[in-house]
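Supplementary Note 3. Input sequence used for the single-chain structure prediction.
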Amino acid sequence: MKLQNDVGRSCGECTACCKPFPVPEVGKQGSGWCHHCTIGKGCNIYADRPLACRLFACAWLNGLGDEGFRPDRLGVMIDVQDVQLGERTVGILHFWEMREGAIGQPVIRRMAETNKDAGFIVAYHRILTQTTYATQMSMRKHLFTEEEVEMVRTQIS
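The predicted structure, written as discrete structure tokens, is reproduced below.
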């Protein structure tokens, strides 16, 4: 989880982060819509949301792209996770599909390829059902050892 940078953005009616993550503080186990979420209107407990929700900030909230990159408009929520692989820290760029097929957009593909070239690992989380995602990992294999690939695979799965 990453704290939000002060770039003057707020969630508004976007609820993209209300689906993929568990939030035990409100009884949400695994993926699926949070019962406090009203799609298109926002979080019903936003002012009093739990710490886990307060700490999370998607890439758009942290300044990525223009208004069209807001997850509910793009259909994809993007976030970055740092992982320790032995002696080095590597970024995982997560693409969480909010609308079926949205990960296939050219802008997402370009962003993924650019970031893989920069040494990031890309994790595509495609919608399978209302409560499940299929996750696929992609990276430039020559930048990682087999051991590192396996370490990342266990963290993403």
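DSSP finds four helices and six strands in the chain. The two ends are 17 Å apart (CA to CA).
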